[in-house]
Write a structure and sequence with these properties.
- The complex is a heterotrimer of chains A (919), B (108) and C (123).
- Chain A is mainly α and 919 residues long.
- In chain A, helix 2 (39-46) packs across helix 14 and helix 19 packs parallel to helix 24.
- The longest helix of chain A has 65 residues, at 640-704.
- Chain A is elongated, with a radius of gyration of 46 Å.
- The termini of chain A are far apart.
- With 108 residues, chain B is mainly alpha-helical.
- Chain B has 4 helices and 2 strands.
- In chain B, helix 2 packs antiparallel against helix 3 (69-90).
- By secondary structure, chain C is an alpha/beta fold.
- The chains are: A mainly alpha (919), B mainly alpha (108), C alpha/beta (123).
- Chains in contact: A-B, A-C.
- The interface between A and B is large, with 65 and 58 residues.
């Protein structure tokens, strides 16, 4: 019997020491000499797996089942033999995606689904509550044991309830101080990890101390102890393998999964991992730790059975009862501290992991939807508050579970219920890592099914059995007397222990639904993208297809302010600077964020809030992009081997395609030329034959009708002359065109002011303009540019364009000639207020004999080749010609000519005068 | 996809991946190593050693070196597994890549 | 009674010459300058014969010829064209033209052929 004050002060002293260690760990990490960067620390911190279950419960289990306690440690050993393959993949993915918990991992894998994240988080919280209860029970009962000096039945003990309540409260405060001390929630908890590693050492030392004392102090070595046990008929069975096989194998597999899936194991092994190379050492160091801590479990259990034939002594407390029975009070105190460290380690990490899940997957998505538009400047602080509250709730729930089940059941049976709950994550996790086709719906359905069966077959019966409720009969008779629904013998399957039975049905349903639903419905684009990122994480990055899921039109400022609300201004600035530096651009100068920046911001946020919430948060400022068919095609499942071989094929067929495309183009061009030639000839024939027809007709009429009156004769003769002129003009144009095309017509350039040529061209229409009352504007800069051209040809171009304008402008309409000089080019435009040239014809008007659609009958005379000649002349001078809309809705024909350098035509007259004065 | 496409995509893809910390090994570390099949072999051996029906050998009491045979066996088997794992991770040979013929294939 | 003839051409001078000659010969005449108005006129005027230019603005002569065949009272059609390719000639005759005359044509010959056609059609 030890004074409560001694125990309490020892416990407080120990917890203070733990704080000091954590503080030291944080200081070291700030100083850049992180302790956590050491693989030994990583391996030891993984020892958080060994909670009060290991410290007290294993002995209890061994005392009645012999070696049956062991698969819980052999499973993790097998799991860690594959850590380099399995866990490394999870770690790698989690680093890439900035995963914060197992719930976040699954949510992120299955299309960043907040629904799935919430389900996993909820299941983890509920599933782990019995496990928390286990720790509370262990601490409380051992405390009472120390105080009273002997074990007693605790179930109806008021002192136990009070003690466990105080323990829960103390642990909650402790976990809050530890896990959510810093405002900065995204950084790793390096101090915590250091403290956990320290606790692993303490509990190992304490357990070895009591083991050595029992084996070598109480008895004379293991041989002696085992011989004494073998001599007792009720204990001899504990030294052999008693089965049953199914329990052994199920628990072996279950703990294989639990060592990865338990929230605290995921937290330590994945989230807190600083370097995936640490897995190399941990692969053998962690199993070694398990081996050592289990060495004395069987000897202590046997010694306990030998010492206490009285079954009233709870075997779970042998570790403590033995030293107490022999007056080894200081050893008992050490053991108590060892057990305390085992429990606190578990509670701290578990509650930190669970509170992260609660805040990120359950509370935060709700908060985001409601309060994001609100004025709250610092969501980070609110997040921290939510986490603290969740820790209180988790421990409260543990305490409630303990109270409502009257602390029935051994430590191990409590822990196994939790194991079975988190095992439900296994199908989704394994499929998520290795099967691209696993879908969100499949995972969701599997989890729901598995968890429902778990709840019905494990915690519900545990609760019912402990109570006096009317439901108690459902265990033996089934609910409402339906026999095949008995929770421990579902569908009449009997002969299995409850854990094996529950695992069989829940995992069967879980896997079945996952497979069936995944094969039934297709994935969404984002699911597919995430599936590839997860499954193909070890592929070379160039081979995994990244498809930007965010559209680019989001202001950088919006992204920045969003990040600031979560991370604070300073960290946001640091992160954005790093991003822009790595990209080599100045973020201050960019208005809109590109898809890469948004993706970067999403991952930054994910480190704080989890993937699903980050996506919701970003969706409030950025638009999600619709995927194009091409991008979806990129996502289409193909192993990279197929891609590699098809790539070569593709290259070949593309070359072929290119060649045949070129051939087809050349052929089309030839056909087009042929057609143009035909059109040209046909139009030419028409244009020549039409006047000829008239001439011939009237000549015949005049010849055959000499009796015609004179005015008629005169009219007909005028027509003949007119048609003759038309024919002559046409023939001249054809000859001109031929000349210009051959280059002959563009010889003899001279330097000349544009003004002069414009004046000449305009002058030739002066009569018509006046007659038709047309308003003709000539707009020329004061210093009219000079050009070096073939004078007559440019005049011809101007005349052609002007006569066109005259033809199409309105009666008493408007024509403008503009001359302007810009960027070394002189631009001359002739505009009218006529019907204009439709957009579709603006290129073809310069082709030969092309008529514009708006032309009325009889208006076509002379247009046939005019614009073609203009085109040839302008191009021949190194200019361009085009048509656009004029300011008054008509056509505006514009052509350019290269300007003479300004200096040349300005300086020259001065140079001439200078030369003159010298002479 | 031409080689040029691949490299340009790689360049654009890298940047969002530049995280605050990047302690995991570079991509050069990738590719199959001899250790992977060996690890799977150890796991398989563990399943056999700790499973049905080997443990059935210890249904009847017997002793080795003064210890119960079951206890002794599990101790040795477990320790042996750990030694094998440690040996595997600490030996240079495990980090070799498979022979060159396979290597090319694996890199594709 | 005199036969009704419809002239369809967008060349005013050719129209003038044909108008003069056919009036002299005592035919009842109408003139259209494009395909649309030609078809409109034809359905009211019920010409016995249409002198049809192929190169018309809007609907071209071939199309006009095809549509004329759908009238209740099908007129004789003489195609006038500057295009003298055999293929086009055959196309015109396929579409139901009775005669394909290439420009420049002799007005004397044309008058004779018109008279012939109308006589054959009447008889």
């Amino acid at each position: 019997m030890i004074s409560p004050w001694v125990i309490v002060s020892a416990a407080i002293g120990y917890l203070g020491l733990l704080f000091a260690v954590a503080f030291w760990g944080d200081r070291r990490s700030l100083a850049g000499r992180s302790l956590v960067a050491n693989p030994w620390v990583y391996s030891l911190s993984l020892g958080v797996y060994c909670s009060a279950w290991t410290f007290y419960g294993s002995v209890g289990r061994a005392a009645s089942g012999g070696i049956a306690f062991l698969p819980v440690y052999l499973g993790p050993t097998l799991a860690f033999s594959l850590a380099w393959i399995l866990l490394r993949k999870i770690v790698r993915i989690s680093k890439h995606e900035r995963i914060t918990s197992i719930a976040d991992f699954l949510a992120s894998r299955y299309g960043k689904s907040s629904r799935l994240g919430a389900l996993v988080a909820g299941a983890a919280v509920i599933g782990v509550v019995p496990y928390i209860a286990l720790q509370l029970k262990a601490i409380s009962s051992t405390f009472l044991l120390l105080v009273r000096g002997s074990g007693r039945d605790l179930g109806t003990d008021l002192a136990f309830d009070r003690t466990s309540f105080v323990v829960a409260a103390v642990l909650a405060v402790f976990a809050i101080l530890f896990g959510t001390r810093k405002l900065d929630v995204t950084e790793r908890h390096e101090g915590m990890v250091t403290a956990i590693a320290f606790e692993s050492v303490v509990k190992l030392v304490a357990f070895l101390a009591v083991g050595l004392w029992v084996t070598y102090g109480l008895h004379s070595g293991p041989q002696d102890l085992f011989r004494k046990a073998a001599a007792r008929p009720d204990l001899a069975g504990l030294l052999t393998f008693q089965g049953p096989w199914d329990s052994w194998l199920w628990i072996l597999g279950l703990s294989f999964l639990a060592v990865i899936l338990l929230p605290r194991q995921f937290q330590i092994a994945v989230v807190e991992n600083t370097n995936e190379r640490h897995l190399r050492k941990a692969s053998w160091q962690f199993p070694l730790y398990l081996l050592i801590i289990n060495l004395f479990v069987l000897p202590i259990a046997l010694a306990g059975r030998l010492q206490f034939p009285n079954p009233a002594i709870d075997a779970d407390t042998y570790v403590l009862s033995l030293p107490l029975a022999f007056g080894q009070n200081s050893l008992a105190l050490i053991v108590f501290l060892g057990g305390l460290s085992a429990s606190t380690g578990m509670v701290i990490v578990e509650s930190v992991a669970l509170s992260t899940m609660i805040s990120n997957e359950l509370v935060f998505p709700l908060l985001l939807r409601s309060a994001l538009g609100g004025p709250d400047p610092n969501l980070g602080a609110r997040l921290l508050f939510v986490r603290r509250l969740s820790i209180l709730l988790i421990l409260g729930a543990g305490q409630f579970y303990l109270y409502s089940t009257h602390a029935e059941g051994s430590l191990v049976s409590l822990g196994l219920i939790s194991f079975a709950a988190v095992a439900q994550f296994a199908p989704s996790l394994i499929a998520g890592l290795y099967w691209r086709g696993a879908t969100h719906r499949g995972a969701f359905a599997g989890l729901i099914g598995g968890l429902a069966v778990w709840a019905y077959t494990l915690p519900v019966p545990a609760y019912v059995a402990s109570g006096t409720s009317a439901l108690a009969s459902m265990l033996s008779d089934g609910p409402f007397g339906i026999g095949w629904l008995r929770p421990h013998e579902l569908f009449g399957v009997s002969g299995l222990d409850p854990i094996s039975h529950s695992l069989f049905w829940s995992l069967l349903l879980n896997c079945g639904l996952l497979l069936a639903v995944s094969s039934y419905r297709q994935q969404s684009a984002i699911e597919h993208a995430q599936a590839r990122r997860f499954v193909d994480v070890f592929r070379r990055r160039s081979e995994t297809t990244e498809v930007p899921l965010w559209s680019a039109a989001t202001p950088v400022a919006a992204i920045r302010s969003l990040l600031e609300r979560f991370l604070g201004a300073e960290r946001t600035a640091r992160a954005l600077n790093r991003f822009s530096a790595s990209r080599g651009f100045d973020l201050e100068k960019v208005v809109f964020a590109d898809g890469n920046l948004i993706a970067y911001a999403e991952r930054l946020l994910a480190g704080t809030t989890g993937a699903a919430s980050a996506r919701v948060a970003l969706a409030s400022v950025a638009q999600e992009r619709e995927l194009s068919v091409g991008e979806l095609m990129l996502l289409v499942d193909e192993t990279s081997k197929v891609i590699a071989t098809s790539r070569a094929l593709e290259e070949k067929s593309r070359a072929l395609e290119r060649t045949s495309l070129e051939l087809r183009r050349a052929n089309e061009r030839l056909l087009e030329l042929d057609r143009l030639k035909d059109d040209f000839l046909a139009t030419m024939a028409h244009e020549l034959r039409t006047p000829l027809t008239s001439i011939r007709a009237f000549a015949e009429i005049l010849h055959d009708h000499p009796e015609l009156e004179l005015t008629k004769q005169r009219q007909f003769l005028e027509i003949v002359l007119h048609e003759n002129e038309r024919l002559t003009r046409l023939i001249n144009q054809v000859l001109d065109l031929a000349k210009i095309e051959s280059g002959e017509g563009l010889a003899g350039r001279e330097e000349i002011a544009l003004e002069e040529m414009v004046a000449e061209a305009v002058g030739s229409f002066a009569g018509v303009v006046e007659l038709r009352k047309i308003e003709l504007e000539v707009r020329c800069p004061a210093e009219c540019p000079r050009v070096e051209v073939v004078r007559d040809r440019i005049v011809q171009v101007l005349v052609n364009l002007l006569s066109n304008a005259l033809k199409y402008c309105r009666p008493a309409g408007w024509i403008a000639v503009d001359v302007a000089e810009r960027a070394g080019v002189v631009e001359i435009a002739v505009a009218d207020d006529g019907p204009g040239v439709p957009e579709s014809e603006r290129r073809s008007v310069f082709e030969r004999f092309r008529q514009v659609g708006v032309l009325g009958a009889g208006d076509r005379h002379g247009i046939g080749l005019g614009l073609s000649i203009c085109h040839e002349v302008v191009v021949g001078h190194g200019g361009r010609i085009w048509v656009e809309s004029s300011e008054r809705g008509g056509a505006r024909f514009v052509f350019t000519l290269p300007a003479l350098p300004a200096t040349e035509h300005r300086v020259r007259p001065e140079a001439a005068t200078a030369a003159e004065s010298q002479a | 996809m031409s080689p040029r496409d691949a490299s340009s995509r790689q360049a654009t893809e890298r940047a969002p991946g530049i995280e605050l910390e990047r302690n995991h090994p570079t991509d050069r570390d990738e590719g199959p190593r001899l250790i992977e099949p060996r690890l799977i072999a150890i796991c398989f051996a563990g399943c056999v050693l700790f499973g049905y029906p080997i443990l059935g050998l210890f249904k009847t009491p017997s002793e080795v070196a003064g210890l119960p045979a079951l206890f002794f066996y599990l101790l040795i088997a477990w320790a042996g597994l750990i030694v094998a794992l440690a040996g595997l991770f600490e030996s240079r040979d495990s980090w070799r890549r498979p022979a060159s013929g396979n290597r090319k294939q694996a890199r594709k | 009674m005199s036969h009704r003839i419809l002239i369809v051409d967008d060349e005013p001078n050719i129209v003038v010459s044909l108008e003069f000659l056919l009036t002299q010969s005592g035919y009842d005449l109408r003139v259209a300058h494009d395909g649309e108005s030609a078809l409109r006129l034809a359905s009211d005027f019920h010409p016995h014969l249409v002198l049809l230019d192929v190169m018309l603005p809007g609907i071209d002569g071939f199309e006009v010829c095809r549509r004329l065949r759908q009238l209740p009272q099908i007129p004789k059609v003489v195609l006038l064209t500057a295009r003298d390719r055999e293929a086009e000639r055959l196309k015109g005759l396929d579409l139901g033209a009775d005669l394909y005359v290439t420009k420049p044509f002799s007005t004397r010959d044309l008058l004779g052929q018109v008279a012939n056609l109308l006589a054959g059609g009447a008889g």
